[in-house]
Amino acid sequence: MDSAVLMIHTNYHTYKMAYLSLLGDLYVCMNVCMDNLFLLTE
Fold first, then answer.
1. DSSP 8-state secondary structure symbol assigned to residue 1
2. Does the pTM exceed 0.85?
């Protein structure tokens, strides 16, 4: 029982970190795109 709970917790933590990392990449990408658009329209 304990090992199953630990496994789920570990998987959840790993997925959460991967999700946050992906979100961070997306945020940076959006910022870069916005900067480029701003430079193009200037």
1. -
2. no
